[in-house]
Design a protein that fits this description.
The protein is of the alpha+beta class and 260 residues long. It is 65% helix and 12% strand. The protein has a five-stranded antiparallel β-sheet, with helices on one face. It is elongated, with a radius of gyration of 58 Å. The chain starts with a helix and ends in a 21-residue tail after the last helix.
């Protein structure tokens, strides 16, 4: 090919390239727009998703609050029902107390004569019983008599103290006991050891062992019987827990015929 022809060929190719460049630039414009729209759509979708996430978080928080409110409401309802039951029970108790208060005066009037009779009976019993610890027992009765006249002591407490005194007297009938006391009057009184076997026998022994005796229920007096010294000594050791419990020999009164 000649130089002129080659030159013309290069010129034709160069012109073709120059004509194609604007065509490629024009063809990429819709793609850029599409990409821009896609980016805008992605951004809008992300914004929408963020909004949905925010709404979902708010919904979950509200749901949690709603559930807590339901639990609190159920708890309050149950507690109110419990309080209602307590109020009903308290009103019933108040009504019962009011009824008792209206009858307490009548009850006191009925109980007081009974307590007076019980104390009088106890006083008579102590006076007629064998004379063991007579000072303590008499003082207990006198205390009860004074207690009946006190306004600062409730009726129930007075009644309890009377029953307690009766219980003590009952215990005397099934116990073994020993103590010291004086026998005789004035200058003739002397200290002796006394042993009591329930209410079956009451015996004494002088500390020097030279005299012993027993209480005669029929004659209502002390009877000297030195022959009882060893038996009284033995009984004293058992009563003082200085010896093992065993059979005791005591002076018993002769049986008497019961009067009809």
């Amino acid at each position: 090919m000649t130089p002129d022809r080659n030159h013309r060929s290069r010129a034709v190719v160069l012109m073709a390239l120059m004509l194609t460049v604007p065509v490629y630039a024009a063809d990429t414009q819709p793609l850029d727009n599409l990409l821009a729209q896609q980016a805008a759509g992605d951004k809008a979708a992300k914004a929408a998703q963020d909004k949905i996430d925010q709404l979902d978080d708010g919904t979950q928080e509200m749901l949690g609050k709603y559930r807590r409110i339901l639990e609190d409401t159920a708890s309050v309802t149950k507690y109110n029902a419990h309080l209602t039951e307590q109020v009903v029970a308290q009103r019933a108790e108040i009504s019962s107390i009011n009824d008792q208060l209206t009858t307490i005066e009548t009850t006191s009037r009925d109980v007081f004569p009974l307590m007076e009779k019980m104390v009088a009976t106890l006083e008579q019993f102590v006076a007629l019983d064998i004379p063991f610890k007579i000072e303590d027992r008499t003082k207990r009765v006198e205390t009860l008599k004074a207690l009946l006249g006190r306004a600062d002591v409730t009726v129930s407490e007075k009644y309890r103290r009377i029953l307690e005194a009766y219980q003590i007297e009952m215990e005397y009938g099934r116990t073994l006991d020993s103590y010291e006391t004086k026998l005789g009057d004035g200058d003739a009184a002397s200290l002796v050891d006394v042993v009591r076997l329930g209410r079956v026998a009451l015996m004494y022994r002088r500390p020097d062992g030279k005299d012993a005796g027993y209480w005669d229920k029929a004659a209502k007096q002390w009877v000297s019987d030195p022959g009882l010294a060893k038996d009284v000594e033995h009984s004293l050791r058992v009563a003082r827990k200085q010896g093992a419990p065993e059979l005791l020999w005591v002076q018993l009164p002769a049986p008497t015929e019961v009067q009809q």
